[in-house]
Amino acid sequence: MSDRYGDVAATSRSAAAQRPALRARSVDGHRWPGAGRRAEGGASRRAEPVPRPKGGELVSTCRHFVPLLEPFRDGELSPADVVDVEQHLVECERCAERLRLGEALRLSLKEHVRAASPVTDAFEDRIRMALAAERGREERLASPGDMHGRMLSWRGIMPIAAAAAVVMVWAASANNRVADSKTTSKADIASTPASVEKLIEDLVANHQRSTGPQFTEQTLLPQLETEVGVPVRAPNFKPYGAYWEGVSVVPVNNQRAASLRYRLSGHKLTVYVYDASRMPVRSTLKERIVRSAPVYVGSRHGVSIAATERSNGVGYAIATDLNNDESAELVASIY
Length: 335
What we know:
This protein has about 325 residues and is an alpha+beta fold. The protein has 4 domains: about 10-40, no CATH class; about 55-115; about 120-140 and about 155-180, no CATH class; about 190-330, MucB/RseB, C-terminal domain (Phosphorylase Kinase, domain 1, 2-Layer Sandwich), CATH 3.30.200. Helix content is about 45%, strand content about 15%. The chain contains 11 helices and 7 strands. It has a 7-stranded antiparallel sheet with strand order 1-2-3-7-6-5-4, with helices on both faces. Helix 6 runs antiparallel to helix 7. The longest helix has 24 residues, at about 95-115. It is elongated. The chain starts with 14 loop residues before the first helix and ends with a helix.
């Protein structure tokens, strides 16, 4: 049978015998350029490997060091890793630029957050109380013989250092607020009846909150003097059957007061210690004489308020759900 070119297929030859001739010869009897070479070497020739681009070793090295740049910037690497990263930064301008860019982004973020989020009094109070509580815990763990001069353990240093770092981030805005507060005269603070009423409302609201105290160690009370401006001492309510629960520093109409919590026969009892010259709580309460001393009594929202002042400028106010006579007796017992 003839094919399209007029050639007669040889039926006696096998298909396998015909295949090499077809590869070496074209359909019109001429050889294709390079056909013989492909036929001879096609079965054993392998593909040439793709040349490796220059700089491939540097890219591979960068893949190892890029995850280490942020810990390197934060000082979290071991000394051996620090040496390796520093050597790589000297040799690799690309990674050095990555490091500079990360530092610039961090600085920009800090400035933006500092400008957009002013520090609140409650935030500063929590930081100070955390530091004081941690110090008190370390002192309790120390033995009496070596408590003085004993350095904090790493377990105690790390949370204190973290809290200190947070405070430093907000230092600029906090300094401005402290400077403004120092220029405010005592005569201008809480001098109007409306301001005094706001003081009492804040005292009642804090008493009614169900949140627990910031810490429970009475030994930490002297450290609160820097927070509230006056010495802080725990009243002795044991003759009345009251027991101690804890203490917090609370904001009261832009001022600070120590809030001491007690429990008396199932009743919540809150004792506030404050600077009487800055918080004239007594000015809107009614005066009465108890134990030959003046006390000032009133009630707001079902809470009894009784206040007194000492000659050293320390003010005490009690908030409780007891009646006014009982509150007056309790506050008069503070000396």
